[in-house]
Amino acid sequence: MKKYLILFVFALVTTVSAQAQVGIGLKVGANYSNITGDDAPDVYERIIGGHAGLTANFPISSDNFFSVQPELLFSMKGAKNDATDADLRLYYIDVPVLARFNAAPLFFEFGPQLSINVGDNVDFDGGSGPDYRRTGLGYAAGLGIATPLGVSLGLRYNGDISKLNDEGDAKVYNDVFMLSLGYTFTTR
Q: Residue 3 contacts by C-beta under 8 Å, 6 or more apart in sequence?
């Protein structure tokens, strides 16, 4: 079944890219993240991190008004415990697949996101923290400005649907604002 799905996606990407200008790009920026939710302690404060990665943009409409933009980003998320000065830094590979509406020079984007936890740097003053989920589902929504030269500046919000960890019934989630600078190379 996986082989057929991969073959279908490859065929779809090939067909779309053969008929339109596919954009491949790079993205880098800053994250402003926190831990939120019904059960999140009030002692958490936002921290600044970063993100970087690759983007692809596949136009769906002939006028490039609507496109699909998958991304592969390395992203730092987490929070600071104001009471203990302990930092919670979680590192993810984020894979958002965004519907993008281009109203030159503005763009609007939203869609689902898969996050894969690739590590953490938890500072609990000698103690160990909880085990965090290896994968999580979330969503992303944002807006930005894109120039005809391929340079873009975007602001995005990422929220989790999946809980941050599986221990207990605590409803705690990542909450991230992203400011990104991107450059897109157009093919064809």
A: none
CB 87 within 8 A of CB 78: yes
**142 DSSP assignment:** E
CB atoms within 10 A of CB 10: 10
| Per-residue pLDDT tens over the stretch 77-90 | 989 888 777 788 99
Q: What is the pTM of this model?
A: 0.82
Please report which helix (H) or strand (E) contains residue 10, including its range: helix 2-19
Report how far residue 109's alpha carbon sits from residue 114's, in angstroms, rounded to the nearest whole number.
16
Q: What letter does residue 188 receive in the DSSP assignment?
A: -
The strand pairing partners of 144, in sequence order, are 107, 154
Classify residue 52 as left (phi > 0), alpha (psi -120 to 50) or beta.
beta
Name the token pair of 105: 């020079």
Q: What angle do CA 51, 55, 61 make, to 5 degrees?
A: 140
The token pair at 182 is: 């991107």
Q: What is the pLDDT of residues 116-139, one digit of tens each?
A: 999 888 755 555 556 788 899 999
Asked if 8 contacts 153 with a C-beta cutoff of 8 angstroms, the reply is no
